[in-house]
Structures are given as C-alpha cells and as structure tokens.
C-alpha cells in the first residue's frame, strides 16, 4: 500500500529510524508508526452540504429546460423554498397569472415525501384543495418520491399541466364540487374559472405572502415581468452555487418584456369550446 508522505512525517520517520538503529530496537515499530501517521481521515459530507448540492443541481436542471410561461427562483431565506409565477396563455384559465411556492422536504434528497405546492389565490379546480390551495400531487407520484427517478421539474410540469386537465373522479378529487361541476355543467365551470382568472389579474400587483423575502417574484405596472436585474445583483447564497452560464440562462430566457406587455393588455375572454384541453397538455403523465 502506497501513501503520500509529508515533509513533517518524513522527518519524524527518519528520526525514529536513526534512533532504532542506534539502540538496536525493532525497526517494525517505526514502520507501523509511519503507516498510522500517513493514514487519511475519511471524507465527511454534512447533510446540509448534500442538500445544498442536490438543490443546486435541481434548479440548474430547471434553468436548462425552462417550462413555458413559468418563472422560478429560489428563496433567499430558505433553501427548501422556491417561488413560482405561472402565466396561462390559453384554455379555460387562459389569461390567468398565478403565483405559487414550492416547499421541498428538509431531508431532501434522501426523502420519500413529496414536495408541496401552494397557490397564493383560491383557484376553482378539481385537483386543487379549496381551503389549503394545494394541488393533490399524490395521484402523479403514487409510490412517493424516488430520488433516482424524480426531479423538482416533474412537480413543476404537473403544476403547469393542471390547468389543461379537469376530468377527475369526484370521489377522489381534491375539490369534489369542481369535479362534479365539470362533468355536469361545463358552462358554469368555465364561468367560475373565468372569475378566478379575473381575480388573479386584479391582484397580480399586490404584495405576495412571502413579501419579506428579497427573491420573491413581484410584478410592477412598468410592463416588465419583474426586476430580474435586481435579483441578479441581490443574489442569495443559494444562487452562488450555480454556474455563471446557468444564471445568465435564467435571466435571458425569462426576460420577455414585450411579450408580457401584450399579455397583460389582452382582455380576458371566455375561451371557445375548441380551446379546451388543447395539445399538448390534454393529459398529465404519471411520474412512476
């Protein structure tokens, strides 16, 4: 077995060897001493370091593969919280602007618990609990969270595609009233969904629930989605773990001021029947 000797160890080894030769002691003791001195400590990785690395990798994955109409940023105060803003561009909820947050289990990535998603506003939807404002994610991850198969991006895709899928069994849905109404009275369902869209646009400039967090997503009446330059400067320690190219991707791929201006100025209208369940989000795939 070979070991790397430092100058200090070499010096002590030479001294012990000279002493052994002078006194006639067993040289094997000197050899054992050298081996013990050169043995390295095992590498120790703290759970907090492992979580930070895993979350940085998850966020980098979202940056490399952005989800249409969705903007995500990690919290500056809690590495297990992400803030999201979702623009629905078509369908029954077309024109809606929904702010939400993602809470990641504190034992990530070794967890078997699913992340939780919570919308800031009430949304009338068969799979969103009306009281907690949380979508039921268990139907898409029936076996729980599997770190070797699932990613936070899978959860974000479910959140986006919820707004294009409404056919749920009332007995197992998060909102049985909405599920029943979709099956029995689609026009009334569309009317209530339109009210949710209008409400989201009326309150889009209000302070979010996590207003004290410097990274929380805000909209201003200036026409920009939000101040990404400020976010890039007032950067949290979480962002510092990402490559510079990744951060540049986030800023460039999510800065769409002209598109946002057009989106914000378009009047909200009830979508025609043909736009319901448009491709490619008519169904949500289970992440088995």
Automatic annotation (TrEMBL):
Record-linked CDD domains: UEV_AKTIP
Coiled-coil segments on the chain, per record: none
SMART domains (UniProt xref): UBCc
This protein's UniProt keywords: Signal
Sequence ranges assigned to domain UBC core in this UniProt record: 50-202
Keyword Transmembrane helix: no
Entries under Gene3D superfamilies matching the protein: Ubiquitin Conjugating Enzyme (3.10.110.10)
Organism: Ancylostoma ceylanicum
Name the record gives this protein: UBC core domain-containing protein
GO biological process: protein modification by small protein conjugation
InterPro entries linked: Ub_conjugating_enzyme (IPR050113), UBC (IPR000608), UBQ-conjugating_enzyme/RWD (IPR016135)
Signal peptide location: 1-20
Gene name of this polypeptide: Acey_s0227.g2842
UniProt keyword Membrane, yes or no: no
């Amino acid at each position: 077995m070979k070991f790397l000797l430092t100058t200090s160890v070499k010096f002590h080894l030479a001294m012990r060897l000279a002493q052994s030769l002078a006194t006639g002691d067993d040289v094997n003791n000197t050899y054992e001493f050298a081996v013990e001195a050169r043995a390295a400590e095992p590498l120790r990785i703290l759970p907090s370091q492992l979580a930070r690395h895993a979350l940085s990798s998850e966020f980098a994955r979202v940056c490399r593969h952005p989800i249409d109409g969705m903007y995500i940023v990690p919290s500056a105060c809690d590495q297990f919280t992400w803030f999201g803003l979702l623009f629905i561009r078509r369908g029954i909820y077309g024109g809606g602007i929904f702010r939400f947050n993602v809470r990641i289990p504190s034992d990530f990535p070794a967890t078997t618990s699913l992340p939780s998603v919570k919308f800031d506003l009430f949304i009338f939807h068969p799979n969103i609990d009306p009281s907690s404002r949380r979508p039921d994610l268990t139907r898409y991850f029936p076996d729980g969270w599997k770190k070797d198969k699932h990613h936070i991006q899978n959860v974000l895709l479910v959140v986006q595609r919820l707004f294009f899928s409404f056919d749920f069994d009332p007995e197992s849905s998060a909102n049985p009233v909405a599920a029943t109404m979709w099956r029995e009275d689609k026009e009334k369902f569309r009317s209530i969904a339109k009210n949710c869209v209008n409400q989201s646009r009326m309150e889009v400039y209000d302070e979010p629930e996590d207003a004290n967090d410097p990274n929380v997503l805000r909209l201003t009446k200036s026409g920009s989605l939000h101040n990404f330059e400020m976010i890039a400067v007032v950067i949290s320690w979480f962002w510092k773990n990402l490559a510079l190219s990744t951060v540049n991707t986030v800023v460039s791929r999510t800065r769409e001021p002209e598109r946002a201006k057009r989106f914000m100025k378009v009047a909200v209208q009830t979508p025609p029947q043909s736009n319901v369940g448009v491709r490619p989000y008519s169904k949500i795939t289970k992440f088995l």
